[in-house]
Amino acid sequence: MNASMMRIQGHWRPSRIITLWGALALCGCATFSQDGGFDPVAHAARERLDKEVRWARSSEEKAKIDRQVAQLLLQPLSVDDAVQIALLNNGALQASFQQLGISEADLVQSGRLPNPRFTMRHASAAGEYDIEETLSLNVLALLTIPYAHEIEKHRFAEAQGAAVVSIVGLADRTREAYLTALAAGESARYLGQVKSAAEAGAELARRMRAAGNWNRLDEARERGFYLDAVSGSARAQLAQRIARENLSELLGVAGEQAEFRLAERLPDLPRTIETLADVEHAGLQDRIDLKMRRARIDELAGNLHLTKATRFVNVLDAGPVRVRQGTDTEPYETGYEVSLEVPIFDTGAARVRRAEAVYAQAVAGYGQAAIEARSEVRKAYERFRSAFETAARERDEILPLRTSIEEEDLRRYNAGQISIFDLLADARARIEGVNDYIQSVRDFWIAKSALDTSLIGDPRQR
Q1: Residue 158, domain member (yes or no)
Q2: Is 338 among the domain residues?
């Protein structure tokens, strides 16, 4: 049908028709892939995060994921275990993978040949017939299939990049939630020790007041220390419960699975950190969000080319026609019909101008995004260095100083030079110093995670 239609268009040579038909036939054979375009996404996750990511597209795959998650939950979770569970089990991430299916469907559809349209008009009166049958095809849609298919390829690649960005963002949020929950647990334990020390001091003060050895002010001071410790411990326990809930949401667990265990303590602070000599260059080389923007520019360039090519004619139907006029013994007349949109009022200039503006907008946006990427990496690196310096100072200077003070106070207490209350006060101060160090170590590892993520991409780009 298409060949006969083209033959009618006199100016088409047979060789050109055969070549075009062959190319379009290849596009028309576009089919869905076995993996739905997910294999490159999973490979990127393994390469950048050293973690396994799966798309639960069947009940069998979902059951396999559930078994793996259940196995990981049997042991105290490390930060790597938590990230792995989130990447396998987070429902929002699994839902985001469906965008790959949507994009692939658009890609396959863009490569399918347009369906022909059959039109029949039938009228009769007193044995006289007026019959017209037309079989037509949208020629313009046929000719633009390769261009539209190429545009959808860019969009599909963009959807794959967006999936990788979602994975990176979830990994970063999970690491932060894990470290926060772990630090909150440690803080709750240490502030519980502060509460116990303050409670002992308050009880001893009450007894000394009852024995007449202390005045009301001294007892009230110890009582105040105890009440502050009780409040601090309660806040720490609440923070621990909230942090675990936040982590549970990211892991995608509930019920009994939400009773998971964490490691006993945060990872140790390293003795030194690596210096990034060319942090800006590293941030621009591998950032997925910038690659997505470049792919978007390529897509818009193709769309601009297609818009210009169809500027004056964007509707063109053609096909063979068979007509009978007269009695049913009259032969059919054959011919062809061409239907096109005449560009009198709408010359397509507005569509071209819009496509040009969208393309220019993307190009300009890419330049600003590159500047922001440099800035993000620099800021993340500065926070990382500052967090390490703060935690290292507490580890190497403040905590040893508090420990030496406590040891000296214990010696003086044994010598009868200070009271038990002075000893308890310094013990509380040392424990609170340890708690401050826990928060500093937590902040360092969170800053480390944020720096690693900034070198891969901006998780806000969805």
Answers
A1: yes
A2: no
